[in-house]
Amino acid sequence: MKTSDETHVPLENFQELPIETMRERAVAFHQELSRRRSVRSFSARPVGRAIIESCVAAAGTAPSGANHQPWFFACIGSADLKRQIREAAEAEERLFYQQRAPEEWLDALAPIGTDAQKPYMETAPWLICIFAQRRGGVTVGEDRKNYYINESVGIATGILIAACQQAGLATLVHTPNPMGFLNQFCGRPDHERPFLILVAGYPADGEMVPKHALKKKRLEEISCFL
Ligand code: IYR
Question: Nitroreductase domain: from which residue to which, for each copy (predicted)?
Answer without folding.
Answer: 34-202
